[in-house]
Amino acid sequence: MNIALQTILAKFPIEQIQITVRAHILPLIYLLPDKRLGRVAERIILGILGGQTPVVTEIARQSSKDEGETWPIAKSIYRWLENERFDSGDLFASLYSIGQQVVETEQPEYLVVAVDPVNFEKPYAEVVEGVSVVYKATPPALDGKSRLTHGYPAITATIVNTKVPVTSYANWFSYKTDDFISQNKEIERAFEQTCRLYPNYRIRFVGDSGLDDQKMFAQVANLQEQFAFRVCHLDRIVEVYNERLDRWETEKLQDLVACVPYQATFEVVFKHAGRERIDTIQFGWFKIRLPGTTRNLWILVADDETLHRQLVLITNVPLTSVQAVQEVYNDWRLRTRIEHGYRFDQEQGLDVEDLRVHTVERMRRIFAMVLLAAQIVFVISVCWPPKAVLWIRQLGGKLNNVCDRDGPYWLLQGLAAVITTCMALSFAFLHPFPFQEFTCG
Asked: I need a surface site. Which of 136, 159, 249, 358 has the fewest CB within 10 A?
């Protein structure tokens, strides 16, 4: 019967999807102590893609029925999550090894790494292990403001200047467990882990205003790497170099930003919601250092004349030329890719917040598998032939209009349609619908 079933499923690229998943997670398969555990990991990733959810029963439902019924497969996944022969640290280590392979394949000139903490919401969880009170700005409360809710904090460091997003550090943690020290310590670990993984690459860390901290400046400098962070504390006191008097003078950063002379003007293309717009950006920069330190830092001010917005960055990259200024600004703009990745993992993509396991260790394991499943979507987008990717997107609902946005969502919908269809066909072939029950006599 399986021969006839394979003939039916041959019209769908389910085998190609399985081969891509298996090839991408080879470091994970080699790390697991048993081959059967590797097959379960492959099944979990396919289930996450097919169901677009990390719920175990939904993952099991997406498995082809020639491999067994839903309940035995769900039990094998639960046993995988509870297996004591490996832990979440092993899964994250394999995730980093997979990232090293991607970087080795693409070989960028240097690495732009976005480090960004995020809070995942579990609004109705009150007695689950390690559940914490987290701060959520999206979606806002009814009054439009940020709110406090139950959930778990997490952090990832993602290489954002490669075609396939690469994770160099990831952790799902709790404020209440014994292994938690502080969120700043998690950020420091992200810096150190990334440098250990890529010792032969120059690394430039980029981050939002949450990383505007003197300790983080020192951490990156001690690692002999570069950073560009958005300035949050404009009221800080800094020392600025006066070239005419050849001395360092103490000023308020906000006053310096307000009177910075513009030294370059460019037209920059922005993309949002499938549309492009061209804004005029004026750039000004100057050298500073923090009181009590001897390290030279630079402030980059980018004023958007079109939307009347201002961006202030602090960096240890010497801004001695217009080319260096453009490079730092463009690298910082790549930081938005990590937010798009969070949105893909969190909302209408893989719905990582819908974890229905009760321990932090199991949550971490599923979090690692969701990150791998998201990578598979980008691997298929980059590595498959264009016509094959277009076929998947059309199956997922692509309209073939000029305004179509060929992002990961249409591709994910198409992959889910392939996996779900193969599951349904295999079930119907092995267990035909009982039409005879509708007849009388």
From this structure: 249
Three-state SS string over the chain comes to CHHHHHHHHCCCCHHHHHHHHHHHCHHHHHHCCCHHHHHHHHHHHHHHHHHCCCCHHHHHHCCCHHHCCHHHHHHHHHHHHHCCCCCHHHHHHHHHHHHHHHHHHHCCCCEEEEEEEEEEECCCCCCCCCCEEEEECCCCCCCCCCEEEEEEEEEEEEECCCCCCEEEEEEECCCCCCCCCCHHHHHHHHHHHHHHHCCCCCEEEEECHHHCCHHHHHHHHHCCCEEEEECCCCCCEEEEEECCCCEEEEEEHHHHHHCCCCCEEEEEEEEECCEEEEEEEEEEEEEEECCCCCCCEEEEEEEECCCCEEEEEEECCCCCCHHHHHHHHHHHHCCHHHHHHHHHHHCCCCCCCCCCCCCHHHHHHHHHHHHHHHHHHHHHHHHCCHHHHHHHHHHHCCCCCCCCCCCHHHHHHHHHHHHHHHHHHHHHHHCCCCHHHHCCC
Q: What distance in Å separates the CA atoms of residue 238 and residue 219, rounded to the nearest whole number?
A: 19
**Residue 350 within any structural domain of the chain:** no
Residue 207, token pair as written in the block: 């981050």
Q: How confident is the model at residue 66 (pLDDT cuts 50, 70, 90)?
A: low
pLDDT in tens, 224-263: 999 999 999 899 999 998 888 888 899 999 999 999 999 9
Residue 353 lies in a domain: no
Minimum mean pLDDT range among 122-126, 211-215, 363-367, 380-384: 122-126
Domain boundaries, position 379: 2-86+362-429
CB-based contact 83:69 (threshold 8 Å) = no
pLDDT at 273: 65
Any domain includes 250: no
Quote the pTM value: 0.92
With respect to residue 135, please indicate whether it lies within any of the assigned structural domains: no
Half-sphere exposure of 160 (CA within 13 A, CB side): 25
Q: Which residue has the tokens 């997003």?
A: 165
Q: How many domains does the chain have?
A: 1
